[in-house]
Amino acid sequence: MKKLLVFTLIFLVFGCLGSSTPIQTSNTVKVTDMLGRTVEVPKEVHRIVAAGPGCLRLIVYLNASDMVVGVEDFEKRFNFGRPYILAHPELKNLPTIGPGGPGKLPNLEEIMKLKPDVIFMTYVDKKTADEIQEKTGIPVVVLSYGELATFRDEELFKSLELAGKILGKEERAKEVINFIKSIQKDLEERTRDVTPKTVYVGGIGYKGAHGIESTEADYPPFKAVHAENVASVLGKGHKFIDKEKLLEWQPEYLFIDEGGLKLILEDYKKNPGFYNSLKAVQEGKVYGLLPYNFYATNIGTAMADAYFIGKVLYPEKFKDIDPAKRADEIYEFLVGKPVYSIMAKQFGGFGKIDLENGKVTYSLPVNP
Predict the structure, then answer these.
(1) Per mean pLDDT, which range of 220-229, 339-348, 358-367 is the poorest?
(2) Cα-to-chain-centroid distance, residue 120
(3) Which residues contact residue 24 at a Cβ distance below 8 angstroms, ignoring those fewer than 6 apart?
(4) Considering only CA atoms, which of 353, 335, 257 is closest in space to residue 85?
């Protein structure tokens, strides 16, 4: 019996050592975030928070809003103009994780109370991300929107893939990326042989609302439909111009981001002579666009704006497109609901702008 027991123990010990299946498996995986940080996250994630401009938007795009356990006050105070919140008003009822807004960090104590598995963040540096992770003991994964110069920004796509991997939404991430690429391809094919029209967009949101002088030198919707942006001579990114430059440039078409329309209408009343000296105003070629930036870039809105711009500039190329319906198709895919009519009610929607008699319900906050 003793010999039999010894042989049995030897068999069990060496059998386990030689097994290809480990006795214990790790419950975490290592990922590399958009700052190049190596972060160890749970294999299965069920509870998350998203902090920083546009972070929650990306989570909604991935159909993961049901995993969110807390949101920033910004999402509750400014519940207009951002399709992801309009489509998911239930998010506003979640506990608060801090003030939110440009440059404002979350409340770490409130986050710790909610016990999320992962904290997703945008627009923070490595030092800040590391400090938050160390203080909370919760993995911090930083995502990025990139530059979005052509809707095909690799940083944006890598962020969607990264978050998709962590949340078990890999297939959805692929679908969103392919959808954005298909929009770009369609716009490109429709306008590749056009004679470019000269254009300008004013009223672009940048850490709050601004007037006609606020623009984007490489505005993606213009690039997507091969329009000639008169402000492109200024380089790239957001720019504030001297209004008098518009009198020099005299674009054929003037587009107004309706996030800043209220300020522009007020400015018109003070200085109608300036606006009426613009060729586009004289010829009635002033058009409204839905807000491009509101807590980072509204990607779906930017694509919808591009279709409306294309319809205005090159109607023969977009004769099969109803911009409002196309906007709803985009919104429904990205955020789950067709919210164009709500956006249009808030800001005016696609159409001509009457600077003298125009009115608007909402404006972007001046100091968010």
Answers:
(1) 358-367
(2) 14
(3) none
(4) 335
**Sequence-ordered alpha helix ranges (H) in the chain:** 2-17, 55-61, 73-77, 83-87, 108-114, 126-136, 154-167, 170-191, 220-224, 244-249, 261-270, 272-276, 279-282, 299-313, 323-335, 340-347
pLDDT in tens, 118-133: 999 999 999 999 999 9
CA dihedral for 256, 186, 53, 229, sign (positive or negative): negative
Compute CA 312 distance to the chain's CA centroid, rounded to the nearest angstrom. Answer: 24
Q: Determine the distance from the C-alpha atom of residue 78 to the mean position of all C-alpha atoms in its chain, rounded to a whole number.
A: 15
| Dist CA 87 CA 334 (whole Å) | 10
Laid out side by side, the sheet with 140-143 consists of 68-70, 48-51, 118-122, 140-143
Work out the pLDDT band at 24, boundaries 50, 70, 90.
very low
Average pLDDT over residues 205-222: 94
Which residues are CB-contacts of 274 (< 8 A; sequence separation ≥ 6)?
Answer: 243, 247
State the average pLDDT over residues 33-52: 97
Q: How far apart are CA 215 and CA 210, in angstroms?
A: 9
